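Two proteins were folded this term; both appear here.
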Amino acid sequence: MKTNIIKTALLIISIFAMHACQDDFLDLKLKNYQTSENYFTTEASALAATNSCYDPIKGRGLFGINFQYFFYPADDRILFETPGQEQLLYNAESGSIGGNGSNFALWDCIYRGVFRANMALEKIPPIEFKAANEPLKQRYLAEAKFMRGLYFFYAKILFDTPPVILKVLKNPSETVTNATSEQIWKQIASDLKSAVEVLPDKYDDANVGRATKGAANALLGKAYLYQQKWDSAKIYLKKVIDSNTYELIKAQAETKEDYIAAYQCNFTPKELKVGARVYKAENNKESVFEIQNSDNTEMGYPNGEWSPGNGSDGSLLSAWFCGVTGYKNVCPTAEAAAIFEVGPVALSLAKDPRFYANIFTTADTLSKNPASKYYNKPWITAYAPATGQGVGLKKYYWPVHESVTAAPYFDPNNWRLIRYADVLLMYAEASLQLNNDADGSGLVQMNEVRKRAGMPILTALTPDAIIRERDVELFGECLRYHDLVRWSLLPTPWVVPENLKYLSGYYKKGRNEYLPIPQSEIDAMQGDLVQNNYWK
């Protein structure tokens, strides 16, 4: 593939080949030298190839920082410290979009992931496994297919017509072309359906975080939702629900602290305690697929602190987005704080319990851990960017992260990429769109999400109800912009993004539905790859 992303790697391959042809001159052979041609021969190397597929998704170019850098401020609920990001001021030459081989770019990280998945799918089949381990081999291949489907999903929703690459490209002169929407959606479905047949429902503790059957079905349902194929979306999302593998984390007692903790534990690195009651945090029953982070410094510090997924095991989210220890780049709008309904009267909450897990106000303390230097210290408006909103982004940044080295590197908090609550809300939406929720099952699942928060159940499922509930439940999870886009593309649009406050004047219909394909990638493909129609 003659793109900037892996062009260097291909040149290295060529150099190896040239030196191999000059053995008679050097009369020297390297012993024990491993290449992609001789490394993949053992079960251990198959596991390494599989594990490598997960690395780019947590990298700096995706969910280690850059995805949030784009899609926190891209919606109408969060503002950026400087105007460029929230005003959608990017183009085909923006380095953070890609095409420069950087690990800090969306396109580059996505196709690095595709490359690794293709490598696993090519190199693992010839490896001889012990007969008893043959199911393990098939699982490795299923994991690689899931990850490739996941990377293609983000390639599609971000760039519209990116290439579908299904092999390891070794010739530096080889070029690729755009896929049609139909082609890339078809490939996503093919990869995920193949993975579903093999992946387990869950893993032991040593393998937690790997792709599961539920994750593949959830992503399939989501892919069909984006295509407006409501019947298929409902089928695959229902498979997740009917698996009985997942459940919403619910309050263990009728107190306001319990209702807040039941939701908030989904965004903290460690369990939350309310008295003797414990709310499990990472990889709990509500997690369908999450990106595994840790504060392990063995691989990175002091030179890898800026390289999640490459030089360290943690993300850079606290470094960029926590107003207390980081650069205070983002904060919610005052309007975002106002979307939360009045809380349950019986719990003496002024607002929906989810408000207290999503939004920092001056009533908050930064940590409840007596060993923390932030113990009982108040959140103050100075921790937010100078936008005059008076609130801060709390989800994922409470309690305030303290690094084991130089704060706030190596943020260990896992990013929950697919939550069960999202599955239930997508199911409700598909059911409404399919036949106006004729069987009432969509309303049931919507109300499950509301009941977990202690909020009154709804008596009717409507577009406004779905929009509002996703706004509240999934606030700050970098989903809203993509929701706004897909709702704007409905035959009868549910929303008009260009009319929304904070998007008005910046969002251009027919342009900002997708990002531009990097110009350097187009140039490298010598005309075979062209810009998507939104940015021509």
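Next, the second protein.
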Amino acid sequence: METTSKPKLWTPGDWNAFFGFGTNILVNLLVLTGLLRFVLKMPDDLVFHRILPATGLMMCLSTAYYAWLAYNLAKKTGRTDICALPSGISVPHMFVVTFVIMLPIASKTGDPVRGWEAGLTWVFIQSFVLMIGGFVAPIIRKITPRAALLGTLAGVSIAFISMRPALDMFMTPMIAIPCFAIILASWFGGVRYFRGTPAGLVAIAVGTLIAWASTAAGLNFGGMSVAKLSDAVSNFGFAVPVPAIGHVFSGFQFLGVILVTAIPFGIYDLVEAMDNVESAAVAGDSFPTTRVLTADGIVSLIGCMMGNPFINAVYIGHPGWKAMGGRIGYSAATGLMVIILSWFGIIAVMVALVPVVAISPILLYIGMLIGSQAFQETPKAHAPAIVLALTPHLAAWGKLQIDNALSAAGTNASTVGFDKLGQNGVLYQGLSVMGGGSILAGLVLGAIAVFVIEHEFMNAAGFAAAGSALTFFGFMHGEAIGIGQTPMVAISYLAVAAFLVGCAKLHTVPAAAPAALEHAPGE
């Protein structure tokens, strides 16, 4: 029953979540700006006066919508602890669209604007995949065990959220380790700082102070310099997004290249969003999956029409921001912050003022929290299934490290030779096959394991058959969509499905069955 009391738009805990989530968003904006300027070689006018203002608009619309959704849920339930879903630029897709779409096309045509246009078209296609998939996702969420959903989410958390900031921290320990200690003491240990100052703000302030002090002392731990800061101030200036519809449709000439990644990564977004909605439900806040996915699609579509070549997504990390005390206001406040940063050219100043490594500990904290949630919020008997769901992500991360290292050396795995790599203990082909479509692979493997543990062999067989179909068409265990991408793996899944059907026919469940699913997947 809907209550008449109005939920509070801001609580003291929103400060912690705002500085935590806001710094997360700031890191992503700083990385995004670096990719556009230094990898794609896009002119500053295009970056600061077209792309970043459009990105800011999209992110503001997204965070405002999820604040509104949380407000309505709080009003309906009468609860005061509802936390808005975090959202922003999809980090994996930021790199995918840059290195797989925009960079090759910009290099081939010799024109970074053409690469930008291809990126806009890529988001355009993905937006419709999200909107259509929003009506299918609730069904998938209902039939999929929680351990599978949270397990594959934990894999993303460990491999792609935790590892990079952790490595950054130990490369610049004089800044990052003290910042990490400040965050751990507050967010895990309950330590309160001066007059309730948010731990995220304290960590960034301390990190920035150490970095600039080291520069003054000639040690330069964080790479700060007055010259860089002075140059950055020159990018101050008000710029609002303007329609880029013509540029969106100009990118359709590259449609063949775009579809190869846009469709599978659109499906990736569906599963990732479902995982993140499930993560929020576990933390006590149940949001409608269809609304979430369609909102991501609509907001991304608006963004690309205004010139933003990056997809919007619900972020992993809702339980973390909720645990900090975040409720409704932190989300809307972050959106307003992004507008200010992106429309006034402040991003360039932030790049020169704050060492990125001071922000890395916050990302590691979120990765720690989400990785642990998979084990804490599912039955103990399902722990092996969670570990299995992690493995495709570890394979994908390992392959990425090898690819990047070989690329830096001016070569690739094929040139070096798979046999030679194997002789040195690097099973590259295994990493490639297992890590292909890791989100879906982790979900399917985790679901099969859960249902086997629960003696629900027909359900396990159904997921094995689904895994066979997805693999055959390249959605998982493959590098591209197509027919018969990894046929031997597809046949193997099919054989597993047949075996499990046989188990269902022959196996008799004992009177005292293992622990049943403690939570229905859709609860």
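The first helix runs from residue 12 to 39. Residues 12-375 form one domain. These notes refer to the second protein only.
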